[in-house]
Amino acid sequence: MSHVHIIGAGLSGLATALDLAAAGRAVTLYESGPTCGGRCRSYFDRELNTRIDNGNHLLLSGNRDAMRYLTRIGTQDTLGGPATPLFPFIDIPSGRRWSVRPNRGPIPWWVLIPSRGVPGASLRDYASLLRLRQASPADTVAGLLPHTPLYRNLIEPFAIAALNTPPEHGSARLLWAVMAESLARGGAYCIPRFPKLGLSESFVDPAVAHLTAAGVTIRTSHRIAALQTNGTHATALLAPDGPVTLGPTDQVILAVPAPVAAMLLPGLAPPDAFEAIFNLHFKYEAAPTEAGFIGLIGSLAEWIFIKPGIVSVTISAANRLADRTPEALASAIWPEICLALDIGAGMPPWRAIREKRATFAATPAQQQRRISATTHLQNVAVSGDWTDTGLPATIEGAIRSGFAAAQKVLALSYQGAPVTNPNPMRMPVSTSS
Ligand SMILES: Cc1cc2nc3c(=O)[nH]c(=O)nc-3n(C[C@H](O)[C@H](O)[C@H](O)COP(=O)(O)OP(=O)(O)OC[C@H]3O[C@@H](n4cnc5c(N)ncnc54)[C@H](O)[C@@H]3O)c2cc1C
């Protein structure tokens, strides 16, 4: 039987390995880092003397592939968040607070009830969101939508978080792709979910344990430096301890970030513009809130997450903050936290994490550079949040692409002959468990 070599043990590579292992395939995962998880991981921070995530990650209940992944590894109940669709906000300049509470069903009657919606938003403002459905590939969020109170107080923060791109440049089509799978289906599909403990505890460590038990070989601190090819197939992987020769029916999946894929497969032209995400973790025990997070408007901080012993702030589309020091940002943000959470304390110990290439920039131009799973090499496929998933770079997109890559491998005959499929990214995902 052929062997599948997965390069990269982020969520995409882990999802591929889970589906392949479930189908009984022989799999080896190569990860350059000392641990798995890639851009979605937890670690022990010596300065704060506690475990923290590289950055806050928010999911929505409508993220079907992420939920299937968690079910597969038995950690769906490690996610927390409000029991209902609930998005609390505070406008920092005025101190005004409100909560957006969509009803669960598909008919959005909540927009008729002022206490469930955005202050000052009219029915006409809500109706303007339908423009996103007809967005052209070139439309940006800010260019397409009118700048109403609804835009300022809900759509803009949602778009920045979902696209990790300023709305002036962010693709309106990609924003619609997120909304079509969440808000547009009803509140039941947009209940906020996030790990109660940490990203690795929910997404990574149990997956690694599951894969190890299933016989998958996981090689961490194993950077693949190059692929050897014969023009039509990859023939070997260059690993730190020497070349790994590939058998005639072996398959390779590059589940690495876009720049690494371009380095390993010259000729590939994936997304090449990126946006940072800035996270600040304060060691502070704040009183729990109903939602566990709050959105901030008119401030530097965008979202605050309240976890046991830690208050964390996320700022997306953070290339604009490149020349501001972490000290300056922490000093500016702590007073915003105090206002939002009604805290009267001095600034506690903190840790800043700036992920410089957190995601590709979700602009119309970058969207055109996304590629499907297949490559010019018959035994090499690609996966990851930057491939043509139809979604922005998210956990859902990464996992979906990983499952799709596994389906592609499983669809190949043992002789390595490709099965004709005009649209490989959209193959049905496996339902086996
Ligand atoms: C701070 C931050 C906040 C985020 N917030 C959210 C959020 O709220 N909601 C959401 O849905 N998404 C969020 N995301 C996006 C989400 O984390 C990513 O979309 C997802 O983790 C990408 O997974 P991936 O497997 O595609 O890529 P990666 O996680 O980048 O995995 C690729 C793996 O390949 C490894 N690798 C690289 N080169 C090699 C090599 N040569 N050999 C072997 N291994 C190699 C890397 O070490 C890495 O582990 C956020 C991302 C960041 C950084």
What do you see in this structure?
- With 433 residues, the protein is α/β, with parallel strands linked by helices.
- 26% of the residues lie in helices and 22% in strands.
- The chain is built from eleven helices and 20 strands.
- The chain has helices spanning 11-22, 64-73, 123-127, 141-144, 149-163, 172-180, 199-213, 258-264, 326-341, 364-367, 395-411; strands at 3-7, 26-30, 42-45, 50-53, 59-60, 79-80, 87-91, 97-100, 192-195, 217-219, 226-229, 234-239, 242-245, 251-254, 274-283, 293-297, 303-307, 310-315, 350-360, 380-382.
- Strands 8-7-16-17-18-15-19 form a seven-stranded mixed β-sheet, with helices on both faces. A five-stranded parallel β-sheet has the order 10-2-1-14-20, covered by helices on one side.
- Helix 1 runs parallel beside helix 7, helix 1 (11-22) packs parallel to helix 11 (395-411) and helix 2 (64-73) packs across helix 11.
- It is globular, with a radius of gyration of 22 Å.
- Residues 413-433 have low confidence and may be disordered.
- Bound molecules: flavin-adenine dinucleotide.
- Residues 7-13, 30-33, 38-40, 54-55, 57-59, 223-224, 255-257, 260, 277, 279, 355, 358-359, 384-385, 393-396, 398 line the site of flavin-adenine dinucleotide.
Descriptive terms for the model:
alpha/beta; seven-stranded mixed sheet; globular; 26% helix; five-stranded parallel sheet; 433 residues; 20 strands; disordered C terminus; binds flavin-adenine dinucleotide
